Amino acid sequence: MPRIHYANVCAFCGRTGRPFLTDFTVEDGFFIDAEKPIADGDEIRTVDMRGAFVMPAFLDVHAHPEGLAMTLSAVPCTPPEVRSIDDLVAALKKSPNALSGEGWIDGWGYDESLLAEKRSPTRTDLDRVSTTQPVWIRRSDYHSAVVNSKALELAGIDRNTPDPEGGAFGRDEDGNPDGRLIELGAVNYVEARARPPKTFEKDVESILKLGDHYLHHGILVTADMMAHRRAPGQTEPLALYRAAENRGLPVEMNLYAVWTGGENPEGMEDFSDDEKQGAIRYAGVKLFADGSISGRTAAVRNPYVLPEGAPEPEFPSGMMTLTEPVFRAAMAFARRNSVQCAIHIMGDRSIDAVLDWLSTESPWLSDVPSVRLEHVSMMRPDQLEKMLALPIRPALTTQIIFPFAEWRSYHAALTQKDFSVCYAVKTLSEKVEAMALSSDAPCTTWSDTDDIFVSLEAAVTRRDSDGGYFNPSEAVSIGTALSLYTSRAALVMPERGIVGAIEPGARANFITLSANPFMIAPSKLRDLRVTGVWKDGKRLLG
């Protein structure tokens, strides 16, 4: 590959505090020092970029690609199309499977706080869609769902069925299941017993559709944070993604296997060396300490706010879905396999518990943090100081898209005092270097969850989707926000070489944007678009 000199650019190198570049040089897929001697006979080609804004390609280090692929063929149950349960029923009735009368009728993204009725749909509502076909809609947080009577029947759930571990079946006043699947334990119960097994070829085709999506979003590195490894009746995700890679999927991916070993450190099969190598690989194991704030299942210190006249909820302070023995077993597995342990942890009560458990753990990885804490939605100042004093220094991810898209849920669920500590991006980023903003796509009530420019605007302005403010003192500069999607995101999980930066020795993964984000109004950041993508020096888009 010839040496290419990209001239006439305005380039953000991915690291704050560094000057913008006016040119850079690429050779053999890497950024190099322009003064590096060139071999006799080799050529140097100059490309005039005509003043384009250039930056490192994005890393979205917490996402769910399989779920994202599913949204491409399921019914969106989000605003602006769906604002009531009647709207939701009407939208589901128009799905291809509903019209054909065959298969499951799938939807995604509902949030009861955004529906006119201010309640969750139930099986009775979904029976209006169909009584002969199973109907399944995922909640926006992807931790809970609602199904109709046919789906409950297929799963063998009735009033005598006990709640599964790590979840609960919603029930009506007579104790009968009402179709709500509360948290992952209940969702997985129905999925395992009722949904037909997927075929490998259809799954590969579904994942391949994400290729253009990722390129147009400027994302070349991502993660599957909920890989179900060799689950009965399910496709092995590593094989699925590697097959898609062989057929042209351009994105690299770290997989985090959901821990299924219980309290036994050897309760899950060890990773092989091959499974931990390559562009698609296992990088860790995943635990769930609690649920979500918008779903009122995150474990919080103070009970959730109740609407006037509302009945006492089943879990007034959310749900801890992790015990210390399970935590210790998963940590031992991660240590033995030399992979990370990632922990979903939203509420401050679950953060309290996990920080206590981490206090006796020491790191086992030298190149990246041994532990990742995911979301940390309500990490308070006392908890941050406690974390910084631990022998093990976790990496952090957080998702500013949640309060942006789900502000109604957050305001309805939390007191103003509790809401004021949510998503403290500025405070966290000033104290923790290995930190990333990420999307958790598709797990929120926004139609394009991993549109990074929306998250950038929310981080810089602290405005929600209806124009209100949330904790403006936690706003960060555009440079910091971009670094949390590039160079600093690259510190959160293992990478192949140096990514997220334009500097000698780094892989030449870079993008061009439709405008310079440093030169436009913060309220216009969401209007930005990716106009070109290069991976390892090869142009893939634009």
Provide an overview of this structure.
With 542 residues, the chain is an alpha/beta fold. Helix 5 crosses helix 6. The radius of gyration is 23 Å and the shape is globular. The mean pLDDT is 95. It has 18 helices and 21 strands.
Number of strands: 21
Q: What is the 3D form?
A: globular
- Detail the poorly predicted runs: none
Over the alpha carbons, how many angstroms does the gyration radius reach?
A: 23 Å
Mean pLDDT, rounded to whole units? 95
Tell me the helix content: 25-40%
Q: Structural class given helices, strands, pairing?
A: alpha/beta
Q: How much β-strand is present in the residues? A: 15-25%
- CA(first)-CA(last) distance: 20 Å
Number of helices: 18
Largest sheet: 8 strands, parallel
Strand order of the largest sheet: 5-12-13-14-15-16-17-18
Protein name: Amidohydrolase
Domain Amidohydrolase: 45-539
Region (Disordered): 157-177
Pfam family, one: Amidohydro_3
Brief summary:
It is built from 18 helices and 21 strands.
Q: Can you lay out the helices and strands and say which pair or pack?
A:
Elements: E1 3-11, E2 21-27, E3 30-32, E4 44-56, E5 58-63, H1 65-71, E6 75-76, H2 85-93, H3 96-100, E7 105-110, H4 123-126, E8 135-139, E9 145-147, H5 149-155, E10 168-171, E11 177-182, H6 183-194, H7 200-208, H8 210-216, E12 219-227, H9 237-246, E13 252-258, E14 280-288, H10 324-337, E15 340-345, H11 348-358, E16 371-375, H12 381-388, E17 395-398, H13 401-405, H14 407-413, H15 416-419, H16 425-431, E18 435-437, H17 452-461, H18 478-483, E19 510-513, E20 530-535, E21 538-541
Parallel strand pairs: 1-4, 5-12, 6-7, 7-8, 12-13, 13-14, 14-15, 15-16, 16-17, 17-18
Antiparallel strand pairs: 1-2, 2-3, 4-19, 8-9, 9-11, 10-11, 19-20, 20-21
Domain Amidohydrolase: 45-539
InterPro entries: Amidohydro_3, Metal-dep_hydrolase_composite, Metal_Hydrolase, YtcJ-like
Region (Disordered): 157-177
